[in-house]
Structure formats: structure tokens, C-alpha cells
Design brief:
This protein has about 120 residues and is mostly beta strands. The chain is built from no helices and eleven strands. It has strands spanning about 5, 10, 20-25, 35-40, 45-50, 55-60, 65-70, 75-80, 90-100, 105-110, 115-120. The strands form two sheets. Strands 2, 4, 5, 6, 9, 10 and 11 form a seven-stranded mixed sheet that branches. It is globular, with a radius of gyration of 13 Å.
Length: about 120
């Protein structure tokens, strides 16, 4: 049974930082691409960042240079370091397992975490 458990969300002021973590089980983690998505109120779910099994990364334009995705294969965990946070980063953040296709586009899989709320507000 695949389980993805996110943690690390919370309330932070604009300009602040948060580090999200996603602990995975039930998959061969080191062979699996991972990603973070987010969904703001009344908006669709969007890809924030993804990392291949070889640690190649991709980011949404809106977070490029501010967010960093990383993975720890020894702990079956993927992290999202979020710096210089803005109010528009407010959303529920979800962890996902998926894959990169031949065009190096990340494709989401069927397994999702329960989400962790990130609120950026003064």
C-alpha cells in the first residue's frame, strides 16, 4: 500500500521560509520520480516542482529561484525548501509520485498525500 505523508506546513510572513517534507512508503523510492503540487482556493492543482530518480529537477516559473526540491533516498523522503514566500504561495501542498516522459515532462501518478496547508500572510 502506497502512502505519502506530508509535513512542515504552517503560517509564515511574506519573505519567510518553510521546508515541507513528504515521507513515502510502499514504493521503491529510489526508482520513483516525485513532485510537489499545490492548490489554492478556487483554483486548479498546479505542479510546483518535480525531481527525477536521478535528481534532475523542474520548477514552475512562479517558484523558480525561490523553491528547491530535493530527495533523500536513504529516508524515502522528498523535501521542498521554500524561501522568499509570497502571499500568492498560499495553498495546500501535495506530494505525488509519477514519472518523466521522453520529453522530460513530469506526469503525475495516482498516489497523492493528504496535503499540508501553507499560509503566507502578515
Amino acid at each position: 500500500q502506497v502512502q505519502l505523508v506530508e509535513s512542515g506546513g504552517g503560517l509564515v510572513q511574506p519573505g519567510g521560509s518553510l521546508r515541507l517534507s513528504c515521507a513515502a512508503s510502499g514504493i521503491i523510492f529510489r526508482f520513483t520520480a516525485m513532485a510537489w503540487y499545490r492548490q489554492a482556493p478556487e483554483k486548479g492543482r498546479e505542479l510546483v516542482a518535480a525531481i527525477s530518480r536521478g535528481a534532475t529537477t523542474t520548477y514552475a516559473d512562479s517558484v523558480q529561484g525561490r523553491f528547491t526540491i530535493s530527495r533523500d533516498n536513504a529516508k524515502n523522503t522528498v523535501h521542498l525548501q521554500m524561501n522568499s514566500l509570497k502571499p500568492e504561495d498560499t495553498a495546500v501542498y501535495y506530494c505525488n509520485t509519477g514519472y518523466f516522459d521522453s520529453s522530460r515532462i513530469y506526469n503525475s501518478g495516482i498516489y497523492w498525500g493528504q496535503g499540508t496547508q501553507v499560509t503566507v500572510s502578515s
